[in-house]
């Protein structure tokens, strides 16, 4: 084994299937060992069975009492909205006009974009998120700044330039042809550059002309292994607006379908006001839904319908949608999505929520085998969860009697403080408190 070998002893949880549909979906090693080689998972299992696989001379980092899970995957977030998180507005459309567009205007300045991207990535890592699908702004400089900072940290990030050529301020507008040309240049520059991946990013149907949607669909076909991300059926006013702009479409989602934008690696944020025909198309095309509970509650958009999505077997993932969302923490996002489920009559076990935030995200992005669990060869992106992070979490987790209860406590009571450390490709990229978290050597 090489000098790039590392080993971590802790409780280990990860998934190999979806616990909503398969009762042998998770692997749990209460006294576990995670062995990394060359930035990838070599093995994960019981300490008693794997200890002899640790090469001589490799010191085992001792995280006993803590829990290692795959790095969280946030499938929908806007990095330029970092500085306007928690801006009050009565609903989506006034919020966009009042706060979002003026904030995004500043990203014409590449140095401003770089500074925000740097803070944003550090904040994601503090919260245990190692992969995100990220909206930049309409400015190519905002994309170069983001990928530059992500590449510098060797993070597995997906991002793209917003395409938007109508119903927005002049200072944020591209054109159908210009937006497509810029997007193609950015694909050639950044897609698969190191760990970076590109996402075609038409903002949402109301801010694109038919010509722009047409070109976005053509790029989606020309570059089938890029991602595509947009918003759909978030808010009833928005749905009515789309109906008036595209009177010939059967539904909001059908606008995207018409232009060839439904395909594997397409990520649709919100998906609240869909109908069953839409849901069937999601499943048929392997387009995924990105569920954004903190945003949907904050903006009063609506409640995601798990029962209908599950009946149609729509690929599901979980997301913050910062700055419409109110937290960078995927644990806090679980806290809120749990309650969204309850309000709709669905019970979401903690195991399912952790799945959606890890392997579920990877699968919905067609990235299983690259990120999302601890199968051999998968990139070693992981977080160390500390059950003693706060007095209340320590007291509550000490009294849990099952894995489900322990995970539920993390999901409902946890936030950035519960993340003791974050690793990306085997490298420590965040440690909560260097004094408390110096690992003891075994
Ligand atoms: N729909 C179009 N743009 C946006 C955005 O920036 N945030 C949210 N939540 N919804 C949108
Ligand atoms: Fe969004």
TrEMBL record:
Catalyzed chemical reaction(s): guanine + H2O + H(+) = xanthine + NH4(+)
InterPro entries: Amidohydro-rel, Guanine_deaminase, Metal-dep_hydrolase_composite, Metal_Hydrolase, Metallo-dep_hydrolases
EC class name: hydrolase
Obligatory cofactor(s): Zn(2+)
Keyword field: Hydrolase, Metal-binding, Zinc
EC id: 3.5.4.3
Residues annotated as domain Amidohydrolase-related: 68-429
One example GO MF annotation: guanine deaminase activity
Source species, domain of life: Bacteria
One Pfam entry name: Amidohydro_1
This protein's pathway: Purine metabolism; guanine degradation; xanthine from guanine: step 1/1
Cofactor: binding comment: Binds 1 zinc ion per subunit.
Protein role: Catalyzes the hydrolytic deamination of guanine, producing xanthine and ammonia.
Family statement drawn from the similarity comment of this UniProt entry: Belongs to the metallo-dependent hydrolases superfamily. ATZ/TRZ family.
PANTHER family linked to this entry: GUANINE DEAMINASE
Protein's name according to its UniProt entry: Guanine deaminase
Gene name, Swiss-Prot/TrEMBL: guaD
């Amino acid at each position: 084994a090489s000098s790039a070998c590392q080993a971590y002893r802790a409780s280990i949880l990860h998934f190999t299937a979806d616990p909503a549909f398969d009762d042998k979906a998770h692997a749990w090693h209460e006294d576990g060992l995670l062995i990394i080689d060359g930035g990838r998972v070599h093995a994960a299992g019981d300490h008693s069975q794997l200890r002899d696989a640790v090469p001589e001379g490799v010191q085992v980092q001792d995280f006993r009492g803590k829990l290692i899970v795959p790095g969280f995957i946030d499938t929908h977030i806007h990095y330029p909205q970092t500085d306007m998180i928690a801006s009050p507005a009565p609903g989506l459309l006034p919020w966009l006009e009042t706060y979002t567009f003026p904030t995004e205007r500043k990203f014409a300045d590449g140095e401003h974009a770089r500074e925000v991207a740097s803070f944003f990535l550090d904040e994601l890592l503090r919260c245990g998120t190692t992969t995100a699908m990220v909206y930049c702004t309409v400015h190519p400089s905002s994309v170069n700044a983001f990928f530059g900072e992500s590449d510098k940290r060797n993070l597995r990030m997906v991002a793209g330039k917003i395409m938007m050529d109508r119903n927005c301020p002049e200072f944020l507008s591209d054109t159908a042809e210009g937006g497509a040309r810029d997007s193609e240049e950015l694909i050639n520059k950044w897609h698969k550059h190191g760990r970076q991946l590109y996402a075609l990013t038409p903002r949402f149907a109301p801010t694109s002309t038919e010509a722009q949607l047409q070109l976005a669909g053509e790029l989606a076909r020309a570059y089938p292994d890029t991602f595509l991300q947009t918003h759909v059926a978030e808010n009833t006013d928005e749905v009515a607006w789309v109906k008036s702009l595209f009177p010939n479409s059967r539904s909001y989602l059908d606008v995207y379908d018409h232009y060839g934008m439904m395909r594997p690696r397409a990520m649709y944020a919100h998906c609240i006001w869909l109908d069953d025909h839409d849901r069937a198309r999601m499943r048929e095309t392997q387009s995924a839904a990105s569920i954004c509970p903190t945003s949907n509650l904050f903006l009063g958009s609506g409640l995601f319908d798990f029962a209908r999505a599950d009946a149609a077997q729509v690929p599901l993932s979980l997301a913050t949608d910062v700055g419409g969302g109110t937290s960078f923490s995927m644990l806090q996002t679980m806290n809120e999505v749990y309650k969204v489920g309850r309000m709709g009559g669905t019970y979401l076990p903690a195991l399912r929520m952790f799945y959606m935030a890890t392997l579920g995200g990877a699968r919905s992005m067609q990235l299983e085998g690259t990120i999302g669990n601890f199968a051999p060869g998968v990139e070693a992106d992981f977080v160390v969860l500390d059950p003693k992070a706060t007095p209340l979490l320590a007291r509550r987790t000490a009294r849990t009697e099952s894995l489900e209860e322990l995970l539920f406590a993390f999901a409902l009571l946890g936030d950035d403080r519960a993340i003791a450390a974050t690793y990306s490709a085997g490298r420590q990229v965040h440690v909560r408190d260097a004094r408390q978290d110096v690992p003891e050597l075994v």
